[in-house]
Amino acid sequence: MSSYDKTLMTLVNTLIHAGRAYKGAADALTADFELSHASAWPVLMISRLGDGVRPGVVADAVGIEPPSLVRIIDQLVAAELVLRKDDPSDRRAKTLSLTAEGKRVAERLEKALAPFRRELFKDIPQADVEATVRVLLRLDQVLAERNAS
What we know:
Strand order of the largest sheet: 1-2
Largest sheet: 2 strands, antiparallel
Order of helices and strands: HHHHEEHH
Radius of gyration: 18 Å
Helix content: over 70%
């Protein structure tokens, strides 16, 4: 195995491990918001993606399959954090939006996550973080293109 292949293998393994570790650490922050770990992420993603987003887009952003999101959305609707409406452009489809309370919860979650992320990256130069973002965005694009074909 070449040196570059070993580097790529280490990168992929580290990416998977770091992603899981980050999600686990970030999930611990949601305990203060009276939300399950599973329901906090959809609230955040609906906030980030904007009102009127389709459930499949939210599921993709959270990293779960759309059928797995249905029960969570049902709970968030019952908790009056999310509104589920018919998509005006396609009545078979639904859209998701946050209620006023859902927006307040999302804002509190973002305020809790910002210092958490800053603490994690405090010893990494901003230029390195920006380079990593460029590489990961490109990787995401390559994988999306590959999966589309």
